[in-house]
Amino acid sequence: MINRPKLNIKAFEIALENAGLDNEELDIIEHIRYIGIFDELSLRKALNLPGKPPALYRLNKACEKIAVSLPEHTERMLQWSISQSPDQISWMGNLVCSIGFNADGERLEPERGTVLYHTFVVHKELFNGLGIT
Question: What is the mean pLDDT of residues 53-77?
Answer without folding.
Answer: 97
